[in-house]
Amino acid sequence: MERPRHQGMVKNTYMRWRLPLVCLLWEVAMIVLFGVFVRFSPEADAHWEEEKREMNLTSDIENDFYFRYPSFQDVHVMIFVGFGFLMTFLKRYGFGAVGFNFLLAAFGIQWALLMQGWFHSFKSGKILIGVENLINADFCVGSVCIAFGAILGKTSPIQLLVMTLFQVTLFAVNEYILLNLLHVKDAGGSMTIHTFGAYFGLMVTRILYRPNLEQSKDKQGSVYHSDLFAMIGTLYLWMYWPSFNSAISEHGDAQHRAAINTYCSLAACVLTTMAFSSMLQKKGKLDMVHIQNATLAGGVAVGTSAEMMLTPYGSLIVGFICGIVSTVGYVYLTPFLESRLHIQDTCGIHNLHAMPGLIGGIVGAITAAAATEDVYGKEGFIKAFDFTGTYQTRTPSVQGGFQAAGIVVSLLMALAGGALVGAILKLPVWGDAAAENCFEDDI
Amino acid sequence: MERPRHQGMVKNTYMRWRLPLVCLLWEVAMIVLFGVFVRFSPEADAHWEEEKREMNLTSDIENDFYFRYPSFQDVHVMIFVGFGFLMTFLKRYGFGAVGFNFLLAAFGIQWALLMQGWFHSFKSGKILIGVENLINADFCVGSVCIAFGAILGKTSPIQLLVMTLFQVTLFAVNEYILLNLLHVKDAGGSMTIHTFGAYFGLMVTRILYRPNLEQSKDKQGSVYHSDLFAMIGTLYLWMYWPSFNSAISEHGDAQHRAAINTYCSLAACVLTTMAFSSMLQKKGKLDMVHIQNATLAGGVAVGTSAEMMLTPYGSLIVGFICGIVSTVGYVYLTPFLESRLHIQDTCGIHNLHAMPGLIGGIVGAITAAAATEDVYGKEGFIKAFDFTGTYQTRTPSVQGGFQAAGIVVSLLMALAGGALVGAILKLPVWGDAAAENCFEDDI
Amino acid sequence: MERPRHQGMVKNTYMRWRLPLVCLLWEVAMIVLFGVFVRFSPEADAHWEEEKREMNLTSDIENDFYFRYPSFQDVHVMIFVGFGFLMTFLKRYGFGAVGFNFLLAAFGIQWALLMQGWFHSFKSGKILIGVENLINADFCVGSVCIAFGAILGKTSPIQLLVMTLFQVTLFAVNEYILLNLLHVKDAGGSMTIHTFGAYFGLMVTRILYRPNLEQSKDKQGSVYHSDLFAMIGTLYLWMYWPSFNSAISEHGDAQHRAAINTYCSLAACVLTTMAFSSMLQKKGKLDMVHIQNATLAGGVAVGTSAEMMLTPYGSLIVGFICGIVSTVGYVYLTPFLESRLHIQDTCGIHNLHAMPGLIGGIVGAITAAAATEDVYGKEGFIKAFDFTGTYQTRTPSVQGGFQAAGIVVSLLMALAGGALVGAILKLPVWGDAAAENCFEDDI
C-alpha cells in the first residue's frame, strides 16, 4: 500500500485540516442542537411508571422497546455491515467502502434524529426520541448509503459528509410530504428510501461525471476474497430485510405480515436472479455481481406493500419480476447509462434500488387501491391504512392515487435534490479526488 | 480465475439453458401452488383484531411474532451465513459454497412451506402461515444444507436443486411420521434435521462415488483466509444454536430452558474438542477443521432434549461426550469411510451431524423415559410432553420407546431416500461435474 | 505455514499432553460442580405454570426470557465474533486470535456461571440460572477478552486458561463488592468489566514483559484482508453495544433508555475519532487502528450511566470526549507505555477500555450525584437507583460517592489481581511461548 504519490494530490484530496474541522464543528453543532431539542420519549423516560398507569398498561413488556428493538438491531446491522460490506467488492477499496460508510452513517443518524424529530416527534418544544426514532434514523441513513453506492470510490470523505447533510435534510422533507401531507403508507420505504436514495445518488454521480475515469477501469474489478466479503454484506441484507420492512409497521399482525411477505419475495427473487444471470452470461456461468445485488431487489420491491394484504403468492410474483428486471438491468442498462447518459453507477444502484423502488411504489399503489373490507376485516381495514380523523372517508382507490403521487414526488425531489447537491459537491472547496486515485484505498 | 477450459466440459456442467429453465419453471410452480394454497395465519392476517378478541388477548405483544421472531432471525442467519460460510474452507470453492447454499436454501424454503404446510397447517383447504412456519421451513432447509456438506464441490447446481426438491419432500414425510404419528418430541431436530439430513447426504455421496477424485486432492485443502471465513460460519452457528433449539419450543419456560441447555452443552463441547484435537495431532497442535466443526456437535446432540429437564449439568455431559466423539471421528472415521466404504464426505458431516444426531436422539429418549411428575410438576409434565387427548395415558417410559423408534425411522428414511435420490442424481440429464473440475469455483 | 522449527520449542510451547489434560480435568470439574449446584431458575423450570400463578402473571410473554433474550444474543455475538475478530488484525495470528478467544470464552462462561451464581443466584443450596445469568457470564468473560487483547500473541493457550480461571474469580469478587456491598449501579460495566478487565490485562502484560519482542515487530503489522476481518469485529461491537449496555437493566424504560444513550454516544465517538485520526497522522490520512478501536470508546464510557437519565446530548458529549481521548492515546500513550513503562499492549486496550472505562465510572458517579426526583419522577427515582430497604435513605450525592469508590476498588482489584496472576503465569509449568514465535499462528 506504500506507493509514491504526488504531494499536491494528497493535499488536495485529504487536506489535513479540513476533515477534522468539519467533523468537530458538526459534532459540536449536534451536541448544541440535541441539548436544546432532544429528550427521551415517555417510554424511555424515568417517568415511565406514571406513564404506564396513564396508558393503563399492566406490564413492562408493552413498552415499545420490546416490540421493535430486535428489528432495530437487524436494521442497524443492515446499514453498517450490510451496506458497508456489500460495497467491499472493489479489490482496492474495501476499507474505504466500509470506513466511509461508517463515517457517513454515524453522522447521518444524528442529523436524521433531529430532522425527522422536528417533523414527527416534536412536542412542546422538544423532540422526544424512542426506539422508533432510532429505526427511522437508520432508515434515513440507509438512503444515503444507497446514494453512496453510485459514487463509491470517486469522492472525498468531506464530499460524503456534505452530501449526507443535504440528503438527510431532503429525505426528511420528502418523507414529511409523503407520510403526513399525502397520508401515504410506505413502511419499508420503497419510495422514501429506495426510489429517493437511488435517483438522488444517480443524479449526483451524473453531475460529478468524470470522462477520464476509464483509466482506472482495472481497479473497478473484484478479486476472490473481496467478493466473499461482499457476500457477507449481501447475505445480511437479504436475511434481515424482513426486519427492515416490518420494523416500523403497526404492532401485531402488520409487523408479522410484513416479515412474511418480505421473506417470500426475497426467496423468489433469488431463483429468477440465478436463472437470468446464467442465461445472459457467456457459457451459462453465474455472475457474482448479480448474486450479490439482484437477489435483494425482491426486498426493495415489497417495501411499500409488505404490511398490506399482499399475500404470500403476491410477494412471490413481485420477487419473481424484480429478480429479472434487476439482473437484466446489470447486463444491459448499466453499460448504457454509462456510455450514453454519462451516469457512472459504481455499484449498480439503478438496478438494485431505483427500478425495484419504483416497482415497489407501484405495487403498493395497486395493493392499496385493491383493498376491501372483506379482505382486511372492518377494523383491520381502518387500522391498515389509518383511515381515521381527516382521512375517515378516503377510499382505497383514492389511497392508491395518493400512493402513486408519492412515487412521483419522491422521484422529482430526488432528481432536483441530487442535481443541487451534485453542483454543491463540485465546488473546489471540498477537495475532489483525482481521477487516477479513484477506487483506491488510501486511508 | 481465467484458465483455459474444455468447451465440452463447460457445456456438460453448466448447460446454458438447463439451470435457467429449472429455476424459472419451479418458481412459476411455486407461485401457482402458493396462489392456490397459501394464506396468512390468523396472527398475521388483517383480521387479527377480531382474532384477538376471540382468543381473549389483551395486548398485541401476545402475537406469536414477538415470541419467535428474534429466534427466527437467528436461525435464518445460521442457515444462510452459518452453513454457507462454514463451507467456505475449500481454497477455491468459497463462492460456490456460499452461492449454491443460497440458491438451494431460497428454493427449499418455498417448497418446505408447502410440504410442511400440507402436513401441519392445513385448514379448510388453505395453508395458513405465520412465523413458526418460516422457522420450520428454515429448519427443513437446514437438513438439506447438511446433506450439501457431504457432496460439496462435486455436484452441479441443477443436481443440488433436484436433491433439494426430493429431500424437502422426504423430510416433511419423516417429520410427519415422527411428530404426528409417533407423537415424538424433537424441538431442535436431532432426529428430523441432523440424523435425517446427514445420513441422507452420506448415502447420496456414496452413490455418487468418484474413484478418481484423488486427483483433485490438492484443491480440497484450505488456505489461511478461507479458514477465517469458515470461522465466521462456525461462530454464527455456535452462538445462535440456543435460538435454533428453542425456536419452536412451547412459549415460556420451554424456550427459556432449551436456550440454557444448549448454551451449556456447546460450552463444554469446545473444551473437549480442543483437548482431543491437540491430543490426536502430531506435535499437539490444534487442527482448524476440528475447531470449525466438532465444537458444534454439542448443539446437535441436545436438539431433542434441550426443551426437556435435561438440567445444565446433563447438558455439559452431553457436550463433553460429543466433542470427543466428533473429533475422534474426524481423525479416524472420515479416512476409514472414504477408503473402505467409498463415502467421500467433504465437510465431515458424519462427525458433526450424523453421530451427534444419533446421540441426540438417544439422549432425548432417555431424558423422556426418565421424566417424573416430581421433576416437571403436574402441569409441566403434561405440557412438556403434550400428554393430552389421545396421548393422555402415555407414560414416560412408553414415550422413551417412541422416541427411540423415531431415531430408527429417521435413519431408515434417510438411507432409503438418499439411495433413491442418489440414483436419480446419477441420471446424465442433470449434467454432472467432471472430476477434474471438482472443488473449483467457476461461477 | 510450513517452516522448519526447533522441536524443543514446540514441546515447550504446546506440550502435547498438558493442554488436553487441563481442558479435560477442568471440564470434569465443571460437570461435578454444576451437578452439585446448578439448577434452572423458576422461569426456566418446568414448574413455571405454578410460578406464573404465584407471581400473578397472565401471559408467558412476561417470562424474563422475552425481555432479555434478544439482547443476550447480541452480547453473545460481541464476545465471540466481536472481540474474536477485532483481534484478527495481526497478519499471521488471525486464527489464533479467534480460536483462543473461543476457547477461553467457552471455558470462562462456565466458571462465571458458578462464581457469579454463588454470589448472586444462590438459593437453598442451589444456583438457579436463567437468561440473566447467561448474560452476566458473557459479561464476565468479556472482561477476560479485554485482558486477552493486551497479551494477544504472546501467551500459550494454557496460560490463557489459567488467566481466565483467576480473572473470572476475581471479577466475581469485585462485582460482588461493587454491586452488593457498595450498592453501586453499573449496568454496562464501565467499572466491573472495562476498568477491571483492562487494568488487569495491562498488569499481566507488564509482568510478562519481553524485552526482545522487538524482533517480531514485523509480525505485529496488519495486512489488507486482516484489516477487513478486524472491521467485522469492530462493527459488531459498535452495532450491538446498545444491547450490551441495556441487557441487564431493569425492564421497561431503563432498558429503552440505556439503548438510546449508547446509540448516541457511539455515533458521536465515530466523528471525533475520524477527526483526530486524520489530524494526528502524517498527510491527514485515517489510521485503520483508530477506526477499528477508538470508535468503540463511546460505548465503554456510557456503560455505567446509560441506564440513568444521562439524556441524549449528555451521551453525545461523552462520546465526543472519548473518541478524542482514545485516539490521542493510540498516537501518544501506547508508544510511551511500551518504551517507558514496559507495557506491551498488543491491541491498545489502554485506549479502548482502560481510559474510557475510568471516564465511564466518573460520568456514572456524576450522573448519579446529579439525580433529582424532578428529573426521574418519584417512583422512577427509587427504581433507578434501587433506593429501597437498607438504602432507602441514601441520597444522590452519597450514591455518587459510592460510585466513585467503586472505580477505585475496581482499579485496585485489577492491579493487584493482575500482578498476582502475571506472576503465576510466569511459572515455567505453563509453557511460555518463545519470543520468536509470538504473533504467529501455529495451530
Automatic annotation (TrEMBL), chains A, B, C:
Gene3D superfamilies xrefs: Ammonium transporter AmtB like domains
InterPro entries found in the cross-reference section: Ammonium/urea_transptr, NH4_transpt_AmtB-like_dom, RhesusRHD
GO cellular component terms, semicolon-separated: apical plasma membrane; basolateral plasma membrane
Molecular-function GO term, any one: ammonium channel activity
Transmembrane residue ranges: 21-40, 65-86, 93-114, 134-153, 160-179, 191-209, 221-240, 260-280, 313-333, 404-425
GO term, biological process aspect, one: ammonium homeostasis
Keyword terms, alphabetized: Ammonia transport, Cell membrane, Glycoprotein, Membrane, Transmembrane, Transmembrane helix, Transport
Cellular compartments annotated: Cell membrane
Domain of life: Eukaryota
Domain Ammonium transporter AmtB-like, first and last residues per copy: 62-429
Record's bilayer topology term: Multi-pass membrane protein
Pfam families: Ammonium_transp
Complex and partners: Homotrimer.
Family under the similarity heading: Belongs to the ammonium transporter (TC 2.A.49) family. Rh subfamily.
Protein name in UniProt: RHCG protein
Species, as recorded: Burhinus bistriatus
